[in-house]
tRNA N6-adenosine threonylcarbamoyltransferase
Amino acid sequence: MKILGIESSCDDTGVAVVEAKADGSFDVMANIIASQDHRETGGVVPEVAARHHAEAIYPTIDRALSEAECWITDIDVVAVTRGPGMMPCLLVGVEAAKTIAAATGLPIIGVNHMAAHIASTFVEHPHITFPAVALLVSGGHTMLVGMNGPDDYFLIGTTRDDAAGEAFDKVAKMLELPYPGGPEISRLAESGDAGAINFPRPMIDSPDLDFSFAGLKTAVLYYIRDNGPLTEQQRADVAASFQASVVEVIVSKATKAVSLHNAKTIILGGGVSANAELRARLQSVLGQGDNRIDVVVPSPGLFTDNGAMIAVAAGPRALAGSFDDWREIEVNPKLKLA
């Protein structure tokens, strides 16, 4: 069964063609991403991003079909992100999907964006050992999700204020680094001393599994204000020390979640999965030793926003014949995962 997946929740226009197989595996035939450049605005402006989506959506669909060597008549199902995300951006993708469904008679499935980040793992790892914990870290979310099966999950920890990715972007702006800030912070941190500044580890000892990074962001702001102007070495030390604080909190919470839920696997997803320090720490803490578990991270083309993860998330419903009515699908910027 061939699924056309459409993603437009933030600033990447993603379209993919994925074949869902009866054995639970997936073949990504095409996965095209049209990215946007936000350096001039210093971040994503929803209305501007939506205009770029509107310009890119149909050419990106055409490119995906062409790369997959398909016509629209070869597609069996259309899947689209309906939330969470930015309302103007979500509307572009959903309206395109609804237009295709209405014009062709193809069935349609609305997908939760965060569930799709989890599902992206199954492209390369279709047979994960459960129970598992999914750690989703992005610009808008930092959450821990317990999983008893591919479609059986429950929220165990979430963001109370700033998500990790948002904190990275804001600290990067304080250090006058370009957008997006996550990769820039990581690059600068390579030449810094992670132990140079004792930034707080927010909520690391709290009994729950929630996250809060607003206080850490404020601590960085005060350090820069009180010690500026910073030398290049000091800027690198700030980046390294800030990154170390975020990573330590995330890994500590993830380790607690694994222990509490007796997880055999931890799945890492979301754009901040690109952070090499986070991946390395997770592997060293959870992926080694006598009590090691499987640490599963999608490849770079799958852990950021993309259409393939939307198609894969829709796979089980598509194979079961459980579809939505295109006339009734609505976007929900605050759509909950569980």
Notes: The first strand starts at residue 2 and ends at 7.
